[in-house]
């Protein structure tokens, strides 16, 4: 591969760099759906610990993704990892000379996946390749390896989520324990030499560990265990005695109880935690004194109106700043030099959010920049802190023209009981009033739906002339415990009312035409779509649901002929508290079942499901389709046989959204 593949010039580079003004008029032609829904051409890159080298995953049309290393001193690039039958999956620097990586396949749907990711290591010059762990029940993914199967770790060996110390050939990996049905039960951690493939045994654990945290030295220091009765315990391992000590506990699924959740260890060994700020509804970052068991009096970062979601940013010496999510991702820098660097980058890129990523032990001036906005997909660049210049690496969706994209705004409206509901409003570029609108309901439902960024589905709909409203209905996370807890046991009731109230708010504000509104969404959003058509038939003229839950009892009971990944533990401890109890809330489940109320749906419906979905099994779609089709001829069911709980394959994403486009145009017609 030539350096030109790494430093290729993008058509929009002049506008991306130096803050060039946007064109006055967007092109008239609609961008094709493939521009939104194909796989990103360039997904990520990682600086080595010194910052001298850049590991990149390179995509070549018609071929599998490969792992390359760029020498930033001369821009030389070398492919160091590739498979004949798979793509590069996760990759990470072990130290400045060695990398570890896994295998993946972006061209296979879930039904066709037959292997775990395996684990491999290689030097940055391509030498020293070694397979470390098996791929499921098959020892090798590629030919030519001299490693014997008996020397490999089992297929259930996985990389940890933290980068570790990066100062030796060793890393810690997880050995995961699964039930016969595939449910994750617990994990151990092993210290692994990535050159020899040998481990030094597992770290003793105080119980059935489900999560681990490394300290500032890269050693396992905290673990979260799964306990009986639906609770989790957090333990700390004393570095002197090696004994575990319990710090706190909390309910596994509701999050109730306990004083904090661990975030990370600082360079000096300080433990930083996430804790609810006294007198507030949201969580913030505090330091925690392990010896005394006390939290600091003052929060390190307090985000008004938002729960903390983010990470600490450190170099080899100190805590530099905190990355966090409010309406968008941003950084609070504690270090004056980093504040100044951020200001310089923002001056070069005034139209985007610019996130700076540093190597762990910088010896060069290179800093990674991830730049994005609501109308711009993410682009990766390198910033030279000595010269003050930016270099483009690549863009995820280079065919997207920001001049054709729509602005996104966080709004708030009042639900009928007075609760304030956040929502994301996207209006087509140059649009006026009383637009056709899609109410897009996020899945989960115990999740945050959106943020200020470029989202393919939202921008695709807006490019077709539709306003898009994304309510963060009660039960959504990230905006405080009041909003989250208000959604417990409210499926099809107050959660549904929040969505309808947001729709009526958009009409009252003049954004939406009351006669041209469609509701849609995946997973819980699919459930809310069907319940919306039932409860508010005057409000929604059609519905688009994919992967949607059609009956709560089906989540509990499953189906004899379809395997479900819904764990017994969640059914026992999570669902009764968050959704409802099958026996105590039986009447409520009947009243809020789209399956049992299918005959009430008279509007056109477009449904889509994955044939290999183990979360919302095909029983949901087949039973509901049969029930609704008996009284409603305007219902279409799409099944992508190879897909699971989402559309992994670009061809299916493109096909689905092209069908959505035609369906919406027919029923609420924007063009």
Automatic annotation (TrEMBL):
Listed GO biological process terms: proteolysis
Keyword field: Hydrolase, Signal
This protein's record includes keyword Hydrolase: yes
Pfam families: Peptidase_S9 (PF00326)
GO MF annotations in UniProt: serine-type endopeptidase activity
Keyword Lyase: no
Boundaries of every Peptidase S9 prolyl oligopeptidase catalytic domain copy: 458-669
Signal peptide span: 1-23
Entry-linked InterPro entries: AB_hydrolase_fold (IPR029058), Peptidase_S9_cat (IPR001375)
Protein name: Prolyl oligopeptidase family serine peptidase
UniProt organism field: Duganella aquatilis
Organism lineage string: Bacteria, Pseudomonadati, Pseudomonadota, Betaproteobacteria, Burkholderiales
